[in-house]
Amino acid sequence: MSSPLSTDASPGSVAETPLTLSQRLKAETARLHDMLDQLVMSTQPFDNRENYGRFVLTQYLFQRDIESLYDDARLQAMIPDLPSRPRLAAAAMDLQDLAVVVPDDADAPAAARLAMEEGLGWLYVSEGSKLGAAFLFKEAAARLGLSETVGARNLAAPEGGRGAAWKRFVQVLDHNALSADDEDRVVEGARQAFHRFAELLRRSFGLAA
Ligand code: HEM
Questions:
Q1: Whose CA is nearest to atom 26 of ligand 1?
Q2: Long-range Cβ pairs for the range 157-161 (8 Å, 24+)
Q3: pLDDT reported for residue 106
Q4: In angstroms, rounded to a whole number, what is the distance separating the alpha carbons of residues 51 and 83?
Q5: 131 touches ligand 1 (CB under 6 Å)
Q6: Are 18 and 5 in contact (CB under 8 A)?
Q7: Distance, CA 149 to ligand 1 centroid (Å)?
Q8: Gene3D superfamilies under this entry (predicted)?
Q9: Which domains are assigned to the chain?
């Protein structure tokens, strides 16, 4: 683009282009993502079915945390294809395939009483995780013989492909009518969600906090 607004990107410049919400989310949670990526890999989730089962339990508990967000009227109005996005049922079926029982001591859904703004941040984390899941799905297939119909539904590509679903979600993020303060709350929600996933992963693998 030739506009001085978009070409002058020097730090602190008044003419700097403001980041879109999706750009902010990516930039402001990158460190948390890397931490989580390393934590996941440190648990060696594809070394055997037991480890993989613990990983899927984490996915299940996280999806259960955010289940009620899919019924939120404001999120539904904002995200037309929201009903196609949950993965709780997929994770539950995978747990059955793997004969993993959900422990009783699991606490209440963490995102149940969230406002729409924070909830959108949690959804960003869930939706973005479907991108990295391309790699995880391949590992589950190659090393454990699992598939989108047995044990690895929770990592399978959404209908129409990962890229298209992600692109539509980013469009929603970047064409919202939120105030700057509300966008801050979305980013805060995303941070909470990354921390929560890490907490659930540690719990599923019996790791110290
Ligand atoms: C070993 C584990 C993981 C690996 C290797 C991984 C890898 C990746 C990769 C390669 C991308 C970028 C894909 C692309 O741009 O096409 C990505 C994006 C993302 N991942 Fe992960 N990921 C992992 C785990 C997770 C987990 C557990 C979560 C959340 C629960 C997560 C959340 C996200 C999010 C939100 C994005 C989108 C970033 C953006 O805004 O562009 N990832 N991941």
A1: 129
A2: 157/130, 158/84, 158/85, 158/130, 159/84
A3: 63
A4: 30
A5: yes
A6: no
A7: 22
A8: Heme oxygenase-like
A9: 19-204 (1.20.910.10)
Weakly modelled stretches of the chain, pLDDT under 50: 1-9
Query: Which pLDDT value is given to residue 5?
Result: 37
Q: What are phi and psi of 151, to 5 degrees?
A: 80, -20
Largest CA distance in the chain: 59
Which amino acid, one-letter code, is at 121?
A: G
Q: Which pLDDT does position 104 carry in this prediction?
A: 84
CA distance 125 to 121: 7
Query: Smallest Cα–Cα separation from 116: which of 53, 174, 186, 66?
Result: 186
Query: Residue whose CA is closest, atom 37 of ligand 1?
Result: 128
What residue type is 200 in one-letter code? L
For the chain, the first-to-last Cα distance in angstroms comes to 47
The residue whose C-alpha atom lies closest to atom 9 belonging to ligand 1 is: 132
